[in-house]
Automatic annotation (TrEMBL):
This is Transcriptional regulator, AraC family. It comes from Salinispira pacifica. Residues 2-100 form the HTH araC/xylS-type domain. Gene3D superfamilies: Homeodomain-like, Regulatory factor, effector binding domain. One of its GO terms (molecular function) is DNA-binding transcription factor activity. InterPro entries: AraC_E-bd, GyrI-like, Homeodomain-like_sf, HTH_AraC, HTH_AraC-typ_CS, Reg_factor_effector_dom_sf, SmbC-like, Tscrpt_reg_AraC-type_HTH. It holds the Pfam family GyrI-like. Keywords: DNA-binding, Transcription, Transcription regulation.
Length: 295
């Protein structure tokens, strides 16, 4: 089912049909419908509409795109249909929702939002909007990154403020791929949904490692692709409760100061081997965001 969800995520702006996705999954449309709803808790149609609204909301908040452009870029055929679906899901029209978020009203629920694969990232902006919790990066780089294939495991559900969620995900990854020394690998954490827009029960997080290395060859891995392109990479050393301040600093301060905005693609956290400093209670992490020049 993860691969089917990845397919939907990659093609959410297209005219997806249950026959197309069931064919991709290799099962009948009837069985796919039953399994999909049992696993995800929503119908395929509801899932596609929710993803489109999430992506559109993310773009409205993090770029200068117009409401009409957001509608068409996220698979809606007209702005009126988009506005009705947006209001039904988020309670406000797209333009009013955008104005309130940009003014900071109710923005404290959100950590970082993304863009068209649109991994939202998942940490809370709460109390960081006034600068109280913003933390300073150790360094910032703007560089072209190659494409990377990440062998992953995934969990779904609420995770904010729950370190056990990520410990369990790490254990899942080690067991799934038979990793003897996972602490010696670079670990990637990919957030698929924007926190504060996606319902908690639908939040998805993937954790994995680069699958292109010969020693990491595994049978039939689940693979997610991080596309090549321009990324901003900011290195932080947050404590357990400071990740939101790191993401907030990157989006509120670093991107605007460099004339950049998010582009389509997954944003992610990357952890090097031996990234934990237990004496100081911090973890070294690179936050990587696909970017483009402000339009």
């Amino acid at each position: 089912m993860n691969r089917s969800l990845d397919y939907i995520e990659d093609h959410f702006h297209s005219d997806l049909s249950i026959h197309e996705i069931a064919s991709f999954a290799g099962i009948s449309p009837y069985h796919f419908h039953r399994i999909f709803q049992a696993v995800t808790g929503e119908s395929l149609y509801a899932c596609v509409i929710r993803l489109r609204i999430e992506r559109a909301a993310a773009r409205l908040l993090t770029t200068s795109i117009s409401v009409t452009e957001a509608a068409y870029s996220c698979g809606f055929n007209d702005a009126a249909t988009f506005s009705r679906a947006f209001k039904k899901q988020l309670g406000l029209s797209p333009s009013i929702w955008r104005r309130k978020k940009q003014k900071g009203q109710d923005f404290g629920k959100m950590r970082k939002i993304d863009h068209a694969h649109t991994g939202g990232s998942g940490y809370n902006f709460s109390n960081s909007m006034n600068g109280k919790w913003l933390i300073t990066p150790l360094g910032v780089d703007l560089k072209e990154e190659p494409a990377r294939n990440i062998a992953y495991v995934r969990r779904q559900g609420a995770f904010a403020g729950d370190p056990g969620f990520f410990r369990d995900l790490y254990s899942d990854m080690s067991r799934r791929y038979g990793l003897i020394s996972p602490e010696k690998k670079r670990i990637y954490v990919i957030y698929h949904n924007p926190l504060g827009i996606t319902p908690d029960q639908q939040l998805r997080v993937s954790m994995g490692f680069e699958a292109d290395e010969p020693e990491d060859a595994v049978a039939n891995p689940d693979v997610i692709r991080l596309e090549e392109g321009l990324y901003i990479q900011a290195r932080y050393e947050p404590g357990n409760r400071e990740y939101g301040g790191a993401w907030s600093d990157l989006y509120r301060n670093i991107l605007p100061s460099r004339g950049l905005e998010p582009r389509d693609g997954f944003a992610y956290e990357r952890y090097a081997p031996d990234c934990h400093d237990r004496n100081r209670g911090v973890t070294r992490v690179d936050i990587c965001v696909p970017v483009q020049k402000l339009k």
